Amino acid sequence: MHKDKALLFFELNLRKICIDTFLEKKDSKGIKLFYKFDSRILNHKIYLKEEYEELKSSLDAFSDILCLQIKQKIDILDMNDYSKLSKQYLEKGYKIAIDNYGYGCFNYRMLYENSPDFLKIDRFFTQNLGKDKVKKIFLSSMANSAKVIGIDIIAKGVDDKETYYVCKELGINLIQGKIVEEPTSIKKDINIKYEHIEELHVNDKRKEGDKFSIEEQMEYIEPVFTNEEMIYVLEKLKNNKEKSFLPILDSSEMPLGIVKDEDLKDYVYSSYGTALLNNKSYIKSVTHFLSKAAIADINVPIEKILEIYTQSDEGSGIIITKDTKYIGFLTSKSLLELLNNKNLSIARDQNPLTKLPGNNTINQFIAKCLDEREEGDEEIHFAYLDFDNFKPFNDKYGFRNGDRAILIFADILRSLEQKGYFAAHIGGDDFFIGNRNRDNFIEFYNMVKMAIDKFKNDAESLYSQEDRNRGVVSMKSREGEVKEYKLLTVSAAILDVTKSSEISITTHMDDIFSLLKKSAKNSSSKIAYATLL
């Protein structure tokens, strides 16, 4: 069938059947239909010739809903044909998706030369994603590279909540997997909306503050649509003199990129330029002038948006979307303001001595951990640490050496921070460590013990040789009585929070830590812990 070219007719007719079936669904407006087509037809030169135009033209009326998905099981032999096809479909309003990216024949060069609209990431990269740090790095890199050039990422194989939330954290807002719907061939099982996914999205409280900051800085630049005539596009640019570009949207309000006034100058200042723009046989649509632009969802953390922008060649700014639809634009000036505000917020909360995060960040971290608990065996650990015998040390060796002791412990915590733990400085000689979904309680306990043992050993260098040999510091009390105090150590109160626990940020947590601290100071191990069931 492939060799006698029957595949070409079969492919196009099957495409029409899929469209007709899709349109039977109510409220399908604005929804994309992803259709896998057989990439072998791209190797037929005849596919791009006029004898198939009549059949293909009958499908063009539905180009705004159809996304042609190229499989990678069979390599495209001629990338030039793929390039021609991409250009042809783009001008007619179709979308193109690459399936199983990260596996097969497609690579970064293909993205550079012929960027599609969507990349479907191979499910290998989402398997066990929550616990595989290397996969997170690869997936984050793929997502950033794609968004910089205006390509949307779709993560395949998202089968559980944990993977869903990790994808959101990495800035991937389109998913495919069993968490949405089990694969089915029964039409009535396919829904336009999935309420359980909407609930997951609404209940996700991560980076809520970032969203509000983005909304404050974002501005709505009036877009143009792919079906608008060029003369009206030109008029919009003239009327919006403060902006040198306009976002381009398809009929479902999904952004494709931008149109720049500089790309229209040759037509504006030409004697026949306006006539050419009005000539539909010469210029099909505004997509003829499409420039790719970086795109990010409003729920993506500010740090990720800034990262995407800095990697982009387009200096105008970044398009902001919500549920894939255009909602505004962050200009380069707005992005600088966001960065400045973010840095100020971090600086205000930093401890001036250790430069570690302070109380506000600690409370945000705890709230985030408790709000994001998912089903399964996920564990959350918090540790409150403070020095023992710090006052007598300060009294004998002075506040400067007291600061040195605090900095020694801060450096120990900073090394843990580099391994993925959250470390903070509450104030004075009080510190905090936390983590979630990283390791079990025993590993966390051993990590805390290691920090305590290292500090005890390192802090001895701050004492005189005589005090080190004796293992105590002799000090006179206010009453003139000589007392002996042991050398500096750290006590730790560890809280292990299980999934079923109903604890929240209240005075209850402070009360629990207070009781544990007393037990820790009287313990030979200098550690006390509790598990909240």
**Structural class computed from helices and strand pairing:** alpha/beta
- Percent strand equals 15-25%
Q: Total helix count?
A: 18
Largest sheet: 6 strands, parallel
Number of strands: 19
Which value, in Å, is the CA radius of gyration?
30 Å
Regarding quaternary structure, what we see is single chain
User: Which word captures the global form?
Assistant: elongated
Query: Can you tell me the residue ranges where pLDDT is under 50 for at least 5 consecutive residues?
Result: none
Strand order, main sheet: write it out.
1-2-3-4-5-6
Q: How much helix is in the residues?
A: 40-55%
Average of the residue pLDDT scores: 80
Task: Tell me what you see in this structure.
- The protein is an alpha/beta fold.
- It is built from 18 helices and 19 strands.
- Strand 5 (152-156), helix 6 (161-169) and strand 6 form a beta-alpha-beta unit.
- The termini are far apart.
Give the SSE layout.
Blueprint: H1 6-23, E1 33-37, H2 53-60, E2 66-70, H3 79-91, E3 95-101, H4 108-113, E4 118-121, H5 133-148, E5 152-156, H6 161-169, E6 174-176, H7 195-203, H8 208-217, E7 224-225, H9 230-239, E8 245-249, E9 255-260, H10 265-268, H11 273-278, E10 295-297, H12 302-310, E11 317-322, E12 325-331, H13 332-349, H14 359-371, E13 380-388, H15 390-417, E14 422-427, E15 430-436, H16 441-459, H17 465-470, E16 472-476, E17 482-486, E18 489-497, H18 507-521, E19 527-532
Parallel strand pairs: 1-2, 2-3, 3-4, 4-5, 5-6, 7-8, 10-11, 18-19
Antiparallel strand pairs: 8-9, 11-12, 13-15, 13-18, 14-15, 16-17
